C-alpha cells in the first residue's frame, strides 16, 4: 500500500515572531476563485464610487490682487513661486507652499499687465512683465532696489515699445525675449530697441510663445484669426494658419516639440502638428464659451484650459473630451491657467482677482504612500480602466455637478450641432452623390495654411 | 566532446549578443523576436528540444488559467482594436505567469495506491491508519451520539469547524481539528438541516416551523419566519444569501446582512428535501419528489432550468466546484452524473439501495452513502469507473456526508453519531489564504468579514453563466436594432394574445370604490396596452414589415444616380 494523506503542520503556516507579517500562501487556480468577474466588477464599482467620493479638487484661493488676474507665469526651476499680473498693473509673486504673497510690485505698470514670463535657468529669479503702458520691465525679488518711499520695488530694467504690449516670452537659452503688440518684436536684453520685427499681416497680435525645446521657433496668434510660426535664425515667418475664429492662447507641448495647442474663440482647443497644419491632430471640445488660456502638463500627455464660461477643464491630450471640470461658485471668467511643473497641481487666475490652486487629479491625496497603499491605488485604477465601459461604472465615473448655466449652454450647443448635422445630411440626400462630401471635424475650423 | 561543442556554441552566442548589444541607431537594432531567434539558432539541438518540451509543458499548464476564448475577428476602429490586442496580450501573459507560479505551491496532494494484487477499496481505515502519519490518524474519529440522531453535518469554508444538527434537536459546533467544542444546545424540536453562514461565528438551523440563526455561543440571533418548515439550507458566501427549501416547496432567499428576503419562488413540485448551491455560479439546485432538479436564481421568478433526472424522488445532489458536473441520486436506485453546462446525462451508477447522501470533493472524488456503507469513487465524474476507490462501513444508517475542504477527510452523519473518515487525495492541498484559510487568526477573520461585505454581490447577479458581466456584445448596432424590433413585435403579439389590452376597458367601466373587479384590473394594469401603446406597436410592426420587404427587394438599379434618384421605384424605373 502506498498512501499519503494531507497533513499540514500549523507551525509551517504561522509566523515565527509577533513582529513578522502573517504568512498568506496563494493559489491562483481559477476553480478556487469562483465568480471572479462579478467580484472584480463589484470592486471596480466600489473603486469608482470612492474616487468620486474623494474628489475634492479645490485646494486654496489666494487673494490679494485688487483687479482680475490676466497674466501668469510658472518657473520650471522653482516649484514654489508663481508670478501673476493683474488688471490694475500690479505684479505679485506667490509662494504656493505658504499660500501667501511672497513679493509684490503695486503699480508695476500703468494700466493692465498683459504678459509675464520668467527668465529660464535656475541661476536667476528675474522675470519680465509687459503692460498696456507700452513698457516691458525686468524684475527680480532679490536684486531689485526699492523706491524712495520704501514700498514699491524698482524694475531691474525697462524697455519701451511703440505700441501697447499683449504678451511676452523669453528665449530658452539666449538673452532674447519676444513681445507682441501690433507686430512681434524680438528684443536683446542688452539693447533698448528690438533687434527684429516679425510681421505677416496682422493688426494686433494676441500672444507670442517661444518653443522651449526647439528653441528658435516661436508662434504667435493675431486678431486676424491667424496663427503664425516664425524662425528666429532667419528672422522670418515659417507658416501661417488661418482658422474660422481667432486664437486666444498657444501652448507648446514640452515633450513633443513640434506639437502645440491653440485655445480658440470657438469654444474648442485644437492641437496641431506644426509640420502639417492643414488639419488639427485633435479637437478638444467641451467648453461652452471662448477658451482663454491653455497649458500643457510637463508630461505632454495632459492639458488644462480656462474658459470664459467660468470653468477650468482638464484634458487627456489624446482624447476629445475633458476628463474633469473644475468650477466654484465665486470663480469668474478664467483668463489664465497653468499646470505646475510637478504635474500635481493646476492654477487658475480669473476675473474675480483670485488665484486658485487645484489638484490635477481630483481624488488623489498628497504625501508619501506606503507600498500597500500604492498597490491598492494601482489595483483600483486598473479595475476602473477595465470596467469603464460598463454602464454603472461609467455613470459613476462621468458624474459631475456642473453649474446650471454651463449645463444648459452645452445642451443648447448639442442641439445646435445635431440640427446642423441633420440639415447637412438632408441636403446631402437631395444633392448629387459626392457633391457634398463630409468635412472631417479636425479640419472644419481651418480656413487655410500658407507656408513660406 | 559534447561539452566542448556546447562551449563553442555558447561563446559564439556570446559574441553575437555582444555585437548586438550596441546597435548604432534605433533602426539598426533588430526586432526583439529576431534577436531571440538568432540566439536560439546558436544553441545546440538537444537543449533546443528540451526547451521545446518545457514550453509545450508550460503551454499545457497555461490552458487552465486562460479565462474564456480569445476574441475573434477584428473591429473597425484601429484604436479599439489596439486596445483589444493589448488586453489579449496581457491576458496571455497573466495566464503564463499563473502557470509558472505553480512551482511556488508547497504542498502536494494525498494518494492511496494499491501494490500487487491489492485493491484500494479493500483497505480499511485501520490499515490506512497504520501507514499514515500521526497527524492524519488524529483526523479519524467517531462521535457516539445515539440519543438525538440522525445527524446532518456541515463544514465551514476553511474546513476548520464542523456543525452538527441531530434530528431530535441537538446542535453543536466543534473546532474538530483541535477537538474543541464551540457551543452545544438542545432546541427540543426537529432539526432538519444546519448551515454555516459567512464564517464560523454564525450558523443557521432549519427547525420544525422555521429557520433560526445562532451565533458561536449558541445564542439565538434571528428567527427567520419566511422560511416555513425548511428542510434544506444553503449559503451563498459571495452574495451573503441564505437559501432554503422546505415542505411548502418554495425556494426562499434571505439576505443575511440586511435581513431582507431577496427572493421567494414557488417551485410547484411540492415538498422538497434537497438543496445545493453551486460553488461555480451560486445557482441553487433543488431536487423534487417527481425526479426533477430545478435551478434557481434569487431574482428570477422562473426556474433557470429544469432537469428531469430520475424516475423517483431525488434523494441527494452534489455539485463540483468547476461548474461542470452534477451528481444526483434518486429513489430509483441510480446515481447519475450530469454535465450541467449542457444539461446532459453523462453516465450512471447503480447502487444497492438508493443513495441517501452524495458529495463531491475538491479534487473530484464522489462519495455516495446508502444504508450503512459509504463508497468513494475516483474519476467517477469524467468516466464510468468499475470499482470504487474506497469503501467504509458505519455502525448506523448514514444521513449526510460531506468532504472537508482542504483536507483528506470525509465526515458522515449517521443515526448514532458522526464519523470522520480519512480519504487520501480528496482535498485541495494548496489553499489560498485570501479565499479560505484553515490557519486563520481572529484578526484575519474580522478583516475577511469586512472584505466580504465590501465585495458583496447584488442578488440579481446570479446567472447560469457567471461571466456575463463586462462581456462585449458582438452584434452590430443594426443587428441590435432589428433584434429589439423583433422583441417588441413578439411582446406585442403576446400581449394581444393574452388579451391584456382589454384591461383598460375594465378600468373604465368599474364604478365602485374598491371592488374586487377594480382591484383585479389594477393588478393587471402593469401590462395595460392602451390605444397609444397599440398604435406604437402597430408602427413597430409596420417598420419591421417594411424593412423585411426592403431586404427582399434588394437595391435599386443604378440607372439614375443623380438627385432624381429617389423618385424612382422598381416599377417605373424606365422614366
TrEMBL record, chain A:
GO biological process, one term: maturation of SSU-rRNA from tricistronic rRNA transcript (SSU-rRNA, 5.8S rRNA, LSU-rRNA)
Region Disordered: start-end pairs: 402-452
Alphabetized SUPFAM superfamilies for the sequence: WD40 repeat-like
Classification via InterPro entries: Sof1, WD40/YVTN_repeat-like_dom_sf, WD40_PAC1, WD40_repeat_dom_sf, WD40_rpt, WD_repeat_DCAF13/WDSOF1
Main location group: nucleus
Locations listed in the record: Nucleus, Nucleolus
Repeat is among the record's keywords: yes
Keyword terms of this UniProt record: Nucleus, Repeat, Ribonucleoprotein, WD repeat
Domain Sof1-like protein residues, every copy: 360-446
GO CC, one annotated term: small-subunit processome
Repeat positions for WD: 62-104, 284-325, 327-368
Family matches, as PROSITE patterns: WD_REPEATS_2, WD_REPEATS_REGION
Residue spans of biased composition, Basic and acidic residues class: 414-430
Classification via Pfam families: Sof1, WD40
The keyword Nucleotide-binding belongs to this UniProt entry's keyword annotation: no
Family the entry assigns: Belongs to the WD repeat DCAF13/WDSOF1 family.
This protein's name: WD40 repeat-like protein
From TrEMBL, chain B:
Keywords attached to this entry: Nucleus, Repeat, rRNA processing, WD repeat
Membrane-spanning intervals of the chain: none
UniProt xrefs under SMART domains: BING4CT, WD40
Localization per record: Nucleus, Nucleolus
UniProt region (Disordered), positions on chain: 1-95, 496-518, 545-575
Superkingdom assignment: Eukaryota
InterPro entries, per the entry: BING4_C_dom, WD40/YVTN_repeat-like_dom_sf, WD40_repeat_CS, WD40_repeat_dom_sf, WD40_rpt, WDR46/Utp7
Single Gene Ontology BP annotation: maturation of SSU-rRNA from tricistronic rRNA transcript (SSU-rRNA, 5.8S rRNA, LSU-rRNA)
Residue ranges annotated for the BING4 C-terminal domain, each copy included: 388-466
A Pfam family the protein falls into: WD40
Cellular component per GO, a single term: small-subunit processome
Positions annotated as WD repeat: 307-348
Residue ranges with Basic and acidic residues bias: 19-33, 496-506
PANTHER family to which the protein is assigned, alphabetical: WD REPEAT-CONTAINING PROTEIN 46, WD-REPEAT PROTEIN BING4
Role this protein plays: Involved in nucleolar processing of pre-18S ribosomal RNA.
Protein name listed in UniProt: U three protein 7
Species assigned in the record: Coemansia reversa (strain ATCC 12441 / NRRL 1564)
